[in-house]
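User: quick one
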Amino acid sequence: MNFIKNFFVKTEPLVQKGAKYRWMFSMHEGFFSLFFVPKDTSKSGSHIHDSIDLKRTMGIVVLAVVPAILFGMYNTGLQHFLAIGEAASTGFFEIFIYGLIKVLPVIAVSYIVGLGIEFVFAQMRGHGIHEGFLVSGILIPMVMPIGTPLWMIALATAFAVILAKEIFGGTGMNIWNPALIARAFLFFAYPAQMSGESVWVALKEGDKLVDGFSGATPMANAAAGNINFSISDAFFGFIPGSIGETSTLAILLGAVILIVTGIGSWKIMVSTIAGGVVMGLILNIFAGSAGLSPEVATYFSMPFWQHLIIGGFAFGAIFMATDPVSGAQTDKGKWIYGFLIGILAILIRVINPAFPEGMMLAILLMNTFAPLIDHYVVNANIKKRMKRVKITA
Amino acid sequence: MSEVIKLRKGLNIKLKGSANKELETLPVPSTVALKPTDFPGLTPKLLVKADAVVKAGDAMFYDKYHPEVLFTAPYGGKVVSVNRGERRKVLEIVIETDENAGSVEFTKADPTSLSGDEIKEQLLKSGLWTFIKRRPYGVIASPNEKPGSIYISTFDTAPLAPDYSFVIEGEMDTFQTGINALAKLTDGKVNLGVNESSAFSSLKNVEVNSFAGPHPAGNVGIQIHHTAPLNKGDIVWTINAQDVLFIGRLFETGKVDFAKIFALTGSEVEKPKYYKTVLGAPVETIIAGKLILADYKQRIISGNVLTGTKVKSQCYLGYYDSQVSVIPEGDDYEFMGWATPGIDKFSASKTFFSSLFPKKEYTLTANLHGGDRAFVVSGQYEKLVPMDILPVHLLKAILVNDIDKMEQLGIYEIIEEDLALCEFACTSKIKVQDILRTGINTMIKELG
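Assistant: Done. Structure below.
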């Protein structure tokens, strides 16, 4: 490894201020610190520091997404072969490889575009690369339908990184979750391409669909008053949907990693699910009320827990709502923030069928309100302290 | 005794090299020094020049803004040099010790028979006043103010901290005398923070509060917060446990005696144990020949690894410290360090496999293990501060220089040591203690 180290150490003077290759400073710092933890030692304050850094933190999140990525690849292949009626005659590895070939370019585009923009901004600001996009870069493909054209992925990524993150100051400063902004951008900018039945399945020209195959997601069907998905398929993830969001099981594996390592807030996960359950139950209660159209009434009466395994609910609760930057930051605030996400996600999903993906909108909405929630939690702390003064005075 | 206050939040950092309970008395060092830099916010006015002959307890300098607070010679001898730094700032006043120089004579009396004012005067003249600090802010107490009460923590939970029941063991009566003197300075009580089955619980003239839990349970600031939290306008005084002995000895003998025990600790020390020397002794006298011979750099710290000061061996020990820690500097690159399983990497998080072995002791270096970042992770600091305080919001209030918010969020209740663990654990390597001191300095400047 010494030759890599020597290379970076020797080239370091070339990227300093005023040197010839200054424009490569951020890139140099980014790759050097990726390979080697810097030798900098404490100059003031605490002499010892925790071994954790942002690279480790983000690395753990990416690790937690891996089960969902791998399953997403398999399911991409599976849905393709189901659509053309060859699923039964195709082997496991062939299915997986097909999905791998389809999904890898999406991931590559997301990282290349996103990191490229990050490098440019870091260089403009004269600091090193901050790691936030390591996670956003994998979450963006996970929430995209496999049929999304690559240029749209690139456009959405660029939009999210520049307008949702960099203009606010970069990693740690953004108001909304960048990955969801990318998804929302496509959802509203290209509604025709991003909905319907064909976007969820990877097909190429000339593929012949078998009779009776519908690429519609269980959620789209449910919104149309047609609840007929298999519970086990929805839980294990053998259903059409965005690349990484279909398998509740794979997402739960990720949740275990996030909770055990303490990187993801279990408070937000639990409260989001609780919010979803509560709203599901409320809808169940009102399922019989007059004035509901038959489709909506059917969706109302869907058992509350089934909401947790379809659509983007599980993925959002585990990987998106728990984003520490755009979410609530106080311990009490996290409970409120998560709970309201759960409530709103199910509410939007069921009441307004034009927005089947309620989870995305619910999280973005609560991202917006997270500072307000924190404000009240902080004020409560202040009030308690002020009250103390009066008692003793 | 009142019931035990159990604290759940916090973290014990288990380092290699804790001191064995074994005491060696060192010969009187050839030089001792006072360092005005040990006192934040002090502007020293010198009272002696080079070549002056002083006795132990003779005034050396005073604080420009509190002329009655004198800083006195820890040992008699000849002032050999006044070392200055940039802009002629006084860094060290060095005394060549002389065993025959003697001490200044002060009143020898049982403090219970003296009035509060008499005790105050004696402490100011002898220089022992400088050991009394005030909260808010953790600076030397002003003689003009009346504290609501006085707090002393008799145990230290910081990494490798000395065991005060061992340090004070032989001088319990002197400790009691010191407490009796302090008790006269307040209308309130002298509060003693003790841990489980502490020898200090049997002391008289004090209110004993018992605490259990991980670091920072031993910090006096945490103990104040859990007995009578500070509000705007409240003042309490604090003093380190070992420094109470100086006061006790003064009243028992009529002379100052700055003999002090230091724990020499850390993974780089061959046989970590306790050494008895004098306040202001050179670091050299304690560490000479006692460190592991290494082909890498070592960092010597006066104090503990969380709050201490980096020193060189020719420097002098810190005024308020009771400990010297020596750890590896760790100034080299580590290949893919952030991605390793991390069996031997200590972390407050659970992201390394080391968290499966909670009892293991670690060698930690001074390496930062990562680059500076903005606040990203949330909830990390809150787990380490056993107080009803929102540390991140307080720090952000300081960063934007919002004095009202600093006050409302509890800046009166904490000093650097109380948030030192946050700095240790911070994923984004934020300089918590520097930020907090900036905020405290702003408060002192704006509100006095």
